[in-house]
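2024-03-11 09:14:02 INFO worker-7 job=invfold-0412 stage=load source=structure_tokens
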């Protein structure tokens, strides 16, 4: 599928017009080999990501939402080249990186970092914090002494106590461990951080502290984020724009205010109708849209609009023709993949 990356109405940083976006992703696809059955035959490939396109400007945060299994993590891992895409283009600061070899990728790697969901399982339990945070710097050729000094600085920046530099991950709480993960991601002064559900594994009381920290760091350091989450309230708070994924594809993307105020895709409407409202009276009045059944397997996606088996608005055309992402609200830089967008 060919879709044009969405236009962005304004850049937070006020950069020169005509500057290429920090990141431009076009038709990104990841097909994992199908599982082998008991007879040894391989099943159909799993198209975990199927033609994803978007752009991200410097200083901007794009929220990526959707049910478990829709391809958010796979997309994030391709962006930082932990996974090589099956096809498609990733232009970072104007340069194509989708198929660079590990050696050719090295100078770019320091600008593209990732924060993972479960801080404890993503930190090596046998390494000290000093080692964990310094590691990306040692790979970049820093001396051990300089890397250690930088690790102590990063601990301070992320609200940790630098004197704890020789401790091990199990000596920290979940929130502190995620601060270590964030400090490690910032060691090489990246421009883009892909945060894959960075607060989902934390207690609610700690989530706000980590989100605050990430917002402060973005503003102080001029970072850009791709922020992956299934909690739509968190995404609303941190994002400038939001992309909603369903079965490997973006079904709606746009400015967060516009998207949250008037969702156009039936799937976005259903997701948002499940977010609790702060006002109890409004909560009682509002209509919940229940999704029918579970998401289908990406190994055998339904034909036409892959959302049609769960969509209350589905018509005959939805079963046969795949809707492309296109502008749904005139004058708004919002794209929706639906034959019948809106109410
Ligand atoms: N290494 C892999 N091999 C085969 N299938 C995978 C692999 N990683 C993910 N998948 C499949 O790809 C789909 C998308 O997974 P993922 O990107 O983890 O989704 P999300 O992060 O939105 O929950 C799922 O169906 C998952 O089972
Ligand atoms: S294209 Fe049809 S089935 Fe798909 S979301 Fe729109 S109305 Fe529903
Ligand atoms: Mg995931």
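2024-03-11 09:14:09 INFO worker-7 stage=emit residues=343
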């Amino acid at each position: 599928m060919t879709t044009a990356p969405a236009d962005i109405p304004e850049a937070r940083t006020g950069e020169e017009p005509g500057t290429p976006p920090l990141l431009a992703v076009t038709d990104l696809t990841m097909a994992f080999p199908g599982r082998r059955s008991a007879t040894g035959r391989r099943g159909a490939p799993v198209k975990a990501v199927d033609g994803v396109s978007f752009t991200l400007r410097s200083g901007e945060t794009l929220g990526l939402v959707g049910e478990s299994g829709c391809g958010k993590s796979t997309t994030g891992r391709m962006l930082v080249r932990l996974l090589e895409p099956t096809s498609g283009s990733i232009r970072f600061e104007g340069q194509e990186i989708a198929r660079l070899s590990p050696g050719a990728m090295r100078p770019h790697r320091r600008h593209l970092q990732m924060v993972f969901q479960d801080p404890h399982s993503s930190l090596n339990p046998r390494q000290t914090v000093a080692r964990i945070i310094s590691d990306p710097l040692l790979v970049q050729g820093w001396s051990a002494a300089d890397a250690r000094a930088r690790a102590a600085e990063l601990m301070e920046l992320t609200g940790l106590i630098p004197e704890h530099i020789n401790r091990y991950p199990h000596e920290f709480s979940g929130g502190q461990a995620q601060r270590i993960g964030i400090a490690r991601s910032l060691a090489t002064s990246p421009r883009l951080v892909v945060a894959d559900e960075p607060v989902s594994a934390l207690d609610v009381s700690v989530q706000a502290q980590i989100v605050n920290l990430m917002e402060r760091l973005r503003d102080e350091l001029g970072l850009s984020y791709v922020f992956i989450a299934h909690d739509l309230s968190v995404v609303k708070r941190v994002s400038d724009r939001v992309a909603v994924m369903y079965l490997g594809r973006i079904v709606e993307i746009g400015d967060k205010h516009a998207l949250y105020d008037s969702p156009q895709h039936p799937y976005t409407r259903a997701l948002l109708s499940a977010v609790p409202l702060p006002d109890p009276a409004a909560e009682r009045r509002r209509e919940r849209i229940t999704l029918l059944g579970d998401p289908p397997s990406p190994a055998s996606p339904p034909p036409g609009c892959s959302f049609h088996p769960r969509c209350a608005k589905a018509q005959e055309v939805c079963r046969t023709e795949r809707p492309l992402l296109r502008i749904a609200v005139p004058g708004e830089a919002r794209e929706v993949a639906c034959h019948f967008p809106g109410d």
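2024-03-11 09:14:09 INFO worker-7 stage=report msg="The longest helix spans residues 204-221."
2024-03-11 09:14:10 INFO worker-7 job finished
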